[in-house]
Amino acid sequence: MKEATDYHLRSNSFITRDFLAENPYKSDSPTASLREIPSPYYTLASEGIFLIRDGEDALVRLPFVARKQTDKKHYTCGGYGFEGRFVSYYYQLREVLRRTPDSVLEIGVGDGVFGSFIKNNTSIVYRSVDIAEDLHPDIIASITTLPIANRSFDIVCAFEVLEHLPFNEFDRALDELCRVARRYVVISLPHFGPMLSMSLKIPFLPQTRLAYKLPYLKTHTFNGEHYWEIGKKRYSISRIRERLRAHGPIVRDFIPFNSEYHHFFVLEVN
Question: Tell me: the pLDDT tens digits for 201-210?
Fold first, then answer.
Protein backbone atom coordinates (compact mmCIF):
# COMPACT_ATOMS: atom_id res chain seq x y z
CA MET A 1 0.00 0.00 0.00
CA LYS A 2 1.33 3.43 -0.86
CA GLU A 3 1.54 6.17 1.74
CA ALA A 4 -1.16 8.81 1.80
CA THR A 5 1.28 11.51 0.69
CA ASP A 6 1.65 9.76 -2.68
CA TYR A 7 -1.90 10.78 -3.55
CA HIS A 8 -1.88 14.51 -2.84
CA LEU A 9 -4.10 16.36 -5.30
CA ARG A 10 -4.73 19.97 -6.10
CA SER A 11 -7.93 21.85 -5.42
CA ASN A 12 -10.92 20.72 -7.51
CA SER A 13 -9.35 17.34 -8.26
CA PHE A 14 -11.26 14.17 -7.54
CA ILE A 15 -10.69 10.60 -6.41
CA THR A 16 -13.27 7.96 -7.22
CA ARG A 17 -14.85 5.72 -4.60
CA ASP A 18 -13.38 2.76 -6.52
CA PHE A 19 -9.94 4.23 -5.89
CA LEU A 20 -10.68 4.47 -2.18
CA ALA A 21 -11.88 0.87 -2.16
CA GLU A 22 -8.69 -0.30 -3.87
CA ASN A 23 -6.42 1.82 -1.67
CA PRO A 24 -7.82 1.83 1.87
CA TYR A 25 -5.86 3.96 4.29
CA LYS A 26 -4.87 1.99 7.40
CA SER A 27 -8.28 0.37 7.66
CA ASP A 28 -9.19 -3.21 8.62
CA SER A 29 -12.20 -3.12 6.32
CA PRO A 30 -11.94 -3.56 2.51
CA THR A 31 -13.31 -0.05 2.03
CA ALA A 32 -12.29 2.63 4.50
CA SER A 33 -14.95 5.04 5.69
CA LEU A 34 -14.48 8.47 4.18
CA ARG A 35 -14.36 9.95 7.67
CA GLU A 36 -11.52 7.56 8.56
CA ILE A 37 -9.32 8.81 5.75
CA PRO A 38 -7.14 11.86 6.57
CA SER A 39 -8.07 14.79 4.35
CA PRO A 40 -4.64 15.07 2.62
CA TYR A 41 -5.24 11.54 1.26
CA TYR A 42 -7.94 12.64 -1.12
CA THR A 43 -7.35 16.33 -1.67
CA LEU A 44 -4.91 19.14 -1.08
CA ALA A 45 -7.49 21.89 -1.46
CA SER A 46 -6.01 24.99 0.16
CA GLU A 47 -9.51 26.29 0.81
CA GLY A 48 -10.46 23.10 2.61
CA ILE A 49 -13.14 22.08 0.09
CA PHE A 50 -13.00 18.31 -0.05
CA LEU A 51 -14.86 16.84 -3.02
CA ILE A 52 -15.17 13.19 -3.99
CA ARG A 53 -16.83 11.93 -7.14
CA ASP A 54 -19.84 9.73 -6.42
CA GLY A 55 -20.75 8.28 -9.81
CA GLU A 56 -20.71 10.74 -12.69
CA ASP A 57 -22.78 13.63 -11.38
CA ALA A 58 -23.17 13.71 -7.58
CA LEU A 59 -20.51 15.19 -5.34
CA VAL A 60 -19.93 14.73 -1.63
CA ARG A 61 -18.52 17.62 0.37
CA LEU A 62 -16.64 16.66 3.53
CA PRO A 63 -16.07 19.08 6.43
CA PHE A 64 -12.57 20.07 7.49
CA VAL A 65 -11.40 18.31 10.64
CA ALA A 66 -8.45 19.79 12.54
CA ARG A 67 -5.66 17.29 13.11
CA LYS A 68 -2.34 17.39 14.90
CA GLN A 69 0.43 18.22 12.38
CA THR A 70 3.63 17.88 14.42
CA ASP A 71 4.81 16.26 17.63
CA LYS A 72 6.82 17.72 20.51
CA LYS A 73 10.14 16.90 18.83
CA HIS A 74 9.36 19.62 16.28
CA TYR A 75 10.07 22.39 18.81
CA THR A 76 13.87 22.52 18.79
CA CYS A 77 16.26 25.40 19.44
CA GLY A 78 17.76 26.55 16.14
CA GLY A 79 14.94 24.87 14.19
CA TYR A 80 11.50 25.98 15.29
CA GLY A 81 13.15 28.21 17.90
CA PHE A 82 15.25 30.29 15.51
CA GLU A 83 16.49 33.78 16.38
CA GLY A 84 13.55 35.58 14.78
CA ARG A 85 11.03 33.55 16.76
CA PHE A 86 12.52 34.71 20.05
CA VAL A 87 12.18 38.28 18.80
CA SER A 88 8.57 37.38 18.05
CA TYR A 89 8.12 36.11 21.62
CA TYR A 90 9.07 39.56 22.89
CA TYR A 91 6.38 41.19 20.77
CA GLN A 92 3.82 38.57 21.77
CA LEU A 93 4.43 39.38 25.42
CA ARG A 94 4.63 43.11 24.84
CA GLU A 95 1.33 43.36 23.00
CA VAL A 96 -0.45 41.28 25.64
CA LEU A 97 1.12 42.75 28.80
CA ARG A 98 0.76 46.39 27.76
CA ARG A 99 -3.02 45.84 27.83
CA THR A 100 -2.87 44.78 31.50
CA PRO A 101 -5.18 41.75 31.30
CA ASP A 102 -6.31 39.78 34.35
CA SER A 103 -6.70 36.64 32.24
CA VAL A 104 -5.24 35.27 28.99
CA LEU A 105 -6.18 32.33 26.80
CA GLU A 106 -3.52 31.10 24.37
CA ILE A 107 -4.53 28.95 21.40
CA GLY A 108 -1.62 26.81 20.25
CA VAL A 109 0.92 25.95 22.94
CA GLY A 110 3.97 25.59 20.69
CA ASP A 111 7.16 25.33 22.73
CA GLY A 112 5.55 26.98 25.74
CA VAL A 113 7.77 30.08 25.95
CA PHE A 114 4.91 32.60 26.02
CA GLY A 115 2.84 30.63 28.53
CA SER A 116 5.83 29.92 30.76
CA PHE A 117 6.66 33.61 31.05
CA ILE A 118 3.06 34.58 31.84
CA LYS A 119 2.67 31.87 34.48
CA ASN A 120 6.05 32.37 36.17
CA ASN A 121 6.43 36.15 36.03
CA THR A 122 2.93 37.64 36.31
CA SER A 123 -0.25 37.22 38.34
CA ILE A 124 -2.33 36.82 35.16
CA VAL A 125 -4.63 33.82 35.00
CA TYR A 126 -3.34 31.81 32.03
CA ARG A 127 -5.01 28.93 30.21
CA SER A 128 -4.06 27.16 26.99
CA VAL A 129 -5.82 25.25 24.21
CA ASP A 130 -4.29 22.85 21.70
CA ILE A 131 -5.32 19.73 19.79
CA ALA A 132 -1.96 18.07 20.56
CA GLU A 133 -2.15 16.09 23.79
CA ASP A 134 1.63 15.70 24.07
CA LEU A 135 1.98 19.47 24.52
CA HIS A 136 -0.14 19.20 27.68
CA PRO A 137 -2.53 22.12 27.13
CA ASP A 138 -5.11 22.95 29.79
CA ILE A 139 -7.87 22.21 27.27
CA ILE A 140 -7.64 19.80 24.33
CA ALA A 141 -9.81 21.27 21.58
CA SER A 142 -9.85 22.82 18.12
CA ILE A 143 -9.72 26.58 17.64
CA THR A 144 -12.91 26.36 15.58
CA THR A 145 -14.95 24.78 18.41
CA LEU A 146 -13.71 26.11 21.73
CA PRO A 147 -15.51 24.54 24.72
CA ILE A 148 -15.34 27.86 26.58
CA ALA A 149 -18.10 30.26 27.63
CA ASN A 150 -18.55 33.65 25.96
CA ARG A 151 -16.30 36.50 27.14
CA SER A 152 -14.29 34.28 29.49
CA PHE A 153 -10.83 35.89 29.06
CA ASP A 154 -9.64 39.49 28.80
CA ILE A 155 -7.30 38.58 25.96
CA VAL A 156 -7.35 35.61 23.60
CA CYS A 157 -4.21 35.08 21.52
CA ALA A 158 -3.21 32.75 18.70
CA PHE A 159 0.36 33.19 17.47
CA GLU A 160 1.19 31.48 14.15
CA VAL A 161 -1.88 29.25 14.39
CA LEU A 162 -4.56 30.29 11.89
CA GLU A 163 -2.45 29.41 8.84
CA HIS A 164 -2.66 25.77 9.95
CA LEU A 165 -6.34 25.84 8.95
CA PRO A 166 -7.71 26.05 5.40
CA PHE A 167 -8.52 29.68 4.63
CA ASN A 168 -12.25 29.01 4.47
CA GLU A 169 -12.00 28.24 8.22
CA PHE A 170 -10.40 31.65 8.93
CA ASP A 171 -13.63 33.50 9.74
CA ARG A 172 -14.99 30.63 11.78
CA ALA A 173 -11.84 30.56 13.92
CA LEU A 174 -11.91 34.34 14.36
CA ASP A 175 -15.54 34.10 15.42
CA GLU A 176 -14.51 31.75 18.20
CA LEU A 177 -11.57 33.90 19.32
CA CYS A 178 -13.76 36.99 19.51
CA ARG A 179 -16.57 35.09 21.22
CA VAL A 180 -14.48 34.01 24.20
CA ALA A 181 -12.53 37.31 24.48
CA ARG A 182 -13.74 40.22 26.60
CA ARG A 183 -11.36 42.92 25.37
CA TYR A 184 -8.80 41.96 22.72
CA VAL A 185 -7.72 39.26 20.31
CA VAL A 186 -3.97 39.22 19.57
CA ILE A 187 -2.70 37.13 16.66
CA SER A 188 0.32 36.76 14.42
CA LEU A 189 0.39 35.27 10.94
CA PRO A 190 3.20 34.29 8.56
CA HIS A 191 3.88 36.97 5.95
CA PHE A 192 5.78 35.66 2.93
CA GLY A 193 7.98 37.81 0.73
CA PRO A 194 11.40 39.49 0.48
CA MET A 195 12.11 42.04 3.16
CA LEU A 196 13.54 45.54 3.02
CA SER A 197 14.82 46.55 6.45
CA MET A 198 17.09 49.30 7.74
CA SER A 199 18.38 50.32 11.13
CA LEU A 200 19.95 53.71 11.84
CA LYS A 201 21.53 54.80 15.12
CA ILE A 202 23.01 58.27 15.49
CA PRO A 203 24.75 59.11 18.77
CA PHE A 204 22.48 60.87 21.28
CA LEU A 205 19.38 60.20 19.15
CA PRO A 206 16.89 57.30 19.34
CA GLN A 207 17.49 54.36 17.03
CA THR A 208 15.32 54.31 13.90
CA ARG A 209 14.18 51.03 12.37
CA LEU A 210 12.27 50.38 9.17
CA ALA A 211 10.89 47.08 7.90
CA TYR A 212 8.83 46.65 4.74
CA LYS A 213 7.60 43.63 2.78
CA LEU A 214 8.23 43.77 -0.97
CA PRO A 215 5.49 42.30 -3.20
CA TYR A 216 6.47 38.90 -4.58
CA LEU A 217 3.45 36.88 -5.64
CA LYS A 218 3.89 33.14 -5.43
CA THR A 219 1.33 30.34 -5.37
CA HIS A 220 1.24 28.63 -1.99
CA THR A 221 1.78 24.88 -1.81
CA PHE A 222 0.61 23.03 1.29
CA ASN A 223 3.71 21.80 3.12
CA GLY A 224 2.03 19.63 5.72
CA GLU A 225 1.58 22.60 8.08
CA HIS A 226 0.63 25.88 6.41
CA TYR A 227 -2.44 26.00 4.18
CA TRP A 228 -1.79 29.63 3.24
CA GLU A 229 0.42 32.63 4.04
CA ILE A 230 0.00 36.39 3.71
CA GLY A 231 1.72 37.74 0.61
CA LYS A 232 1.12 34.74 -1.61
CA LYS A 233 -1.37 34.65 -4.47
CA ARG A 234 -4.98 35.06 -3.27
CA TYR A 235 -3.84 35.96 0.26
CA SER A 236 -2.91 39.63 -0.01
CA ILE A 237 -2.51 41.74 3.11
CA SER A 238 -5.53 43.80 2.05
CA ARG A 239 -7.67 40.64 1.94
CA ILE A 240 -6.50 39.59 5.41
CA ARG A 241 -7.18 43.05 6.86
CA GLU A 242 -10.65 43.05 5.32
CA ARG A 243 -11.49 39.73 6.97
CA LEU A 244 -10.07 40.86 10.32
CA ARG A 245 -12.03 44.12 10.29
CA ALA A 246 -15.21 42.11 9.84
CA HIS A 247 -14.62 40.87 13.41
CA GLY A 248 -13.57 44.11 15.07
CA PRO A 249 -11.40 47.23 14.76
CA ILE A 250 -7.68 46.61 14.17
CA VAL A 251 -5.90 48.65 16.84
CA ARG A 252 -2.38 47.35 16.08
CA ASP A 253 -0.94 46.12 12.77
CA PHE A 254 2.83 45.71 12.36
CA ILE A 255 5.78 43.57 11.28
CA PRO A 256 8.51 43.38 13.96
CA PHE A 257 12.05 44.31 13.08
CA ASN A 258 14.24 41.15 13.01
CA SER A 259 11.14 38.94 12.88
CA GLU A 260 9.77 39.99 9.52
CA TYR A 261 8.07 36.66 8.77
CA HIS A 262 5.55 37.27 11.59
CA HIS A 263 2.82 39.88 11.06
CA PHE A 264 1.01 40.99 14.22
CA PHE A 265 -2.58 42.19 14.60
CA VAL A 266 -4.53 43.28 17.65
CA LEU A 267 -8.33 43.34 17.36
CA GLU A 268 -10.57 45.16 19.79
CA VAL A 269 -13.58 43.02 20.61
CA ASN A 270 -16.91 44.77 20.07
Answer: 999 999 988 8
